[in-house]
Amino acid sequence: MAASGAGSPARLVQYVVVRSDLVHKLSWPLGAVITQACHAATAAIHLHYEEPDTQQYLSELDSMHKVVLAAPDEAALSGLSENLTQAGVLHKLWIEQPENIPTCLALKPYAKETVQPLLRKFKLFK
After folding, report:
1. pLDDT tens, position by position, for the chain (126 residues)?
2. 1: three-class secondary structure by DSSP
3. DSSP structure string for 68-101
């Protein structure tokens, strides 16, 4: 991953992108949506546990940094997942079972400047 400055390590961030329509249009309880984000973040860490950035991120347990963004709907979330896959960005698209509904995705920890351009159109989840 790219370093943020000469001699200083890059700030590692785990991005989580959640469908905002689940709360605002489909009336899912907020707790259920937060649970989806937790599932995706945990799964992304598990799937990419051996990656050096994941290990560094976990070694700084008390200073983990996550950013939760909003995708307006399923199409936007699925499109983002496809774009991330094409760009070689490791992530987990969480699909709630047994309903088979894509609810959110989480990237493995990355240097912020590495992945932020791919996420620029998504705003903070509110």
Report:
1. 444 445 556 889 999 999 999 999 999 999 999 999 999 999 999 999 999 999 999 999 999 999 999 999 999 999 999 999 999 999 999 999 999 999 999 999 999 999 999 999 999 999
2. coil
3. EEEESSHHHHHHHHHHHHHTT--EEEEEETTTTE
